[in-house]
Amino acid sequence: MTDHAYNFAYLDEATKRMIRRAILKGIAVPGYQVPFASREMPMPYGWGTGGVQVTAACLTPEDTLKVIDQGADDTTNAVSIRKFFERTGGVETTTHTSEASVIQTRHRIPEEPLREGQILVYQVPIPEPLRFLEPRESETRKMHALEEYGLMHVKLYEDIARHGEISTSYAYPVNVEGRYVMDPSPIPKFDNPKLGGNPAIQLFGAGREQRIYALPPFTEVVSLDFEDHPFQASKADHDCDLCGCATSYLDEVITDDRGGRMFVCSDTDFCESRRSAGHRGRLSPEEMA
Amino acid sequence: MRDFKDTALLQVEGLTKRYGARIGCADVSFDLWPGEVLGIVGESGSGKSTLLSCLAGHLTPDHGRVLYQGRDTLAMNEPERRVLGRTDWAFVHQNPRDGLRMGVSAGGNVGERLMAVGARNYGAIREAATDWLARVEIDAGRIDDRPRQFSGGMQQRLQIARNLVTGPKLVFMDEPTGGLDVSVQARLLDLLRGLVRDMGLSVILVTHDLAVARLLADRLMVMQGGHVIEHGLTDQVLDDPQAPYTQLLVSSVLQV
Fold first, then answer.
1. For this structure, is A240 an active site residue?
2. What is the pLDDT of residue A130?
3. Chain B interface, mutation test: which of A154, A163, A228, A231, most B Cβ atoms within 10 Å?
4. What share of chain B is helix, strand, coil (3-state, %, to 5)?
5. Which of A104, A129, B1, B58 could join A173 in a cystine, given CB atoms 3.0 to 4.6 angstroms apart?
6. A50, A51, A243, A245: which one is catalytic?
7. What is the pLDDT of residue B65?
8. In chain A, % of residues over pLDDT 70
9. Family, per the entry (chain A) (predicted)?
10. Which of B82, B118, B125 is opposite residue A146, by nearest beta carbon?
11. Which chain A residues touch B115 with a CB distance below 8 Å?
12. A265 in catalytic set
């Protein structure tokens, strides 16, 4: 079903080489934002143009691709990108985390632990963690170069002063290998502990901002915090209503207009495999024995 | 004989800055001693602010040397200079909006320098911020308010607290009382005088207001057209001005 009008995985080989060089540099300097010549992609900015370019540069015909959007395999963004690579690359696709060799993700890390040899590609809207505090790019670059990260803590200070706790719940800033402060893309802070010491390669692509950065396998990643307000990975205080899992990250779903709601795993593949293994939650349909 | 060169905090030698053919400041030399307040007075365009920017490292002078505790700050690399800028030095801008983060609460503004030098304990940062707000006479209940909600005088006091929280040795002040009404100025001057004495600060104070110079400065430098035309103890310069321009300046002050 490959569309032969395009090169394998849409991008031409020269572009892929340019992106690969940026990726290699990113892996060599973990957490450093490498500028790259982001291409116009056949989708709008904000839909994962950065992630798609990184995925295209990494894909080989033997790869198996999984695409998730907020943990789900079946939302528009995930379905479109999966189809895009089926059409332009002819690669195998899957929804199972364990079967995938390349996983492009928007705002989640899969629940199932990744293994060596897998590549996780993040879609990043704003790669600069200091942006909202310091609007000048020339200044933020200098701050990264000179490791002046006090400002990041000013943001966390403001959180505590206003809300009594660090209320940043996604895109929670991390320090990589004691050097660069990095925005882990808008993943919930629940996923932050999975960034560090991960056996998979983690690549971050920001298309509009033209930046690529990376975490090589088993990198030390520390979430920023205060001594007396330590980092806490948080999730909704419920079990999944479909599979009963107590440890996965949950989405809250409004079920009617009388305050009815349910909590379900945001990782659909994880939830489905648990259900097919016989796990049941509060709202699971009755067994058709 | 005591070697005075070894005890001066800041030594400036032949500092010159040109803007093309125009002179910003020319051949300025002086020493600043620990605990001393040096006033630089002169009319607008006389090169006061250019000189201050060169000293603080915001502008690169064309000639001359600036030695801080014997270290040449112009030959220093940028990281070192920036570290100096947030530890030993402080800069109080004329307009508090230039020196404050307007989107960050008062406590965050005061705490920023602490966090920049590695403070990571929220309680301790908060305590230091509360303490400093009290020292600059800002009600502790306003610690979580944004500077936007403060009056001009309060903003200026907040800027001073933010700068002094890390206990700097040398403070550059560019017209700290500019744009404030007289009664607010008086309170601010009172506060500054107290802080300078208590903390033993060395200050380089740029002002066009001779009353401010009289109240705060130990020594005075009068500038005109980029040159220092008179230099001496404050009372001596103001009560017995020698240069014609200084005489004009002193006689131009309105007597109430």
1. yes
2. 94
3. A154
4. 40, 25, 35
5. A129
6. A243
7. 92
8. 97
9. Belongs to the PhnJ family.
10. B82
11. 150-151, 153-154, 157
12. yes
Known catalytic membership, residue A245 = no
The helices-and-strands tally (H runs, E runs) of chain A is: 6, 12
Which residues of chain B are within 8 Å of residue A229 when distances are taken between CB atoms?
Answer: 122
- B167-182 burial, b for 16+ CB within 10 Å, e for fewer? ebbbbbbbbbbbebee
Question: Hey, where are the domains in chain A?
Answer: 13-223, 250-288
Top mean pLDDT of A40-44, A74-78, A200-204 is at A200-204
DSSP annotation of B208 reads S
Q: Give the span between the Cα atoms of A143 and A145, in whole angstroms.
A: 5
* pLDDT for residue A138 is more than 80: yes
Instruction: Please report how many Cα atoms fall inside a 13 Å half-sphere around the Cα of residue B223, on the Cβ side.
Output: 30
Alpha helix positions (H), chain B: 48-56, 78-86, 96-99, 106-116, 122-135, 152-164, 182-199, 210-216, 234-239, 244-251
Question: Is B122 within 8 Å of chain A by CB?
Answer: yes
User: Which superfamily is assigned to A13-223 in CATH?
Assistant: Bacterial phosphonate metabolism protein PhnH (3.40.50.11310)
Using alpha carbons, list the distances in angstroms from residue B212 to A229, B191, B215, B246.
44, 12, 5, 16
Catalytic-residue membership of A31: yes
Sheet holding B89-92, edge to edge: B89-92, B170-174, B202-207, B37-41, B219-224, B227-233
Which residue shows structure tokens 């607008």?
B44
User: For residue B7, how many other CB atoms are within 10 A of its CB?
Assistant: 11
Chain mean pLDDT for chain B: 90
Pick from B112, B121, B144: CB nearest A154:
B112
Structure tokens at A190: 């629940």
Task: Give the C-alpha separation, A159 to B125, whole Å.
Answer: 14
Nearest-by-Cβ selection for A150 from B104, B115, B126? B115
Mean pLDDT score, A158-165: 93
- Test mutation, A158, A166, A223, A225, chain B, max B CBs within 10 A: A158
Give the per-residue pLDDT at A3: 56
- Please choose, from the candidates A73, A74, A79, A81, the residue with its C-alpha nearest in 3D space to the C-alpha of residue A123: A81
Taking all residues of chain A, what is their mean pLDDT, rounded to a whole number? 93
Strand partners, B222: B41, B230
Q: Which is catalytic among the residues A71, A205, A245, A271?
A: A271
- Residues of B within 8 A of A157 (CB-CB) are 107-108, 111, 115, 122, 125
Q: Answer whether A161 sits within 8 Å of B123, measured CB to CB.
A: no
Compute CA B193 distance to the chain's CA centroid, rounded to the nearest angstrom: 13
| DSSP letter (8 states) at residue B2 | -
CA distance A215 to chain B (A): 25
Q: Is A58 a catalytic residue?
A: no
Looking at the predicted structure, is the pLDDT value of residue B118 above 60?
yes
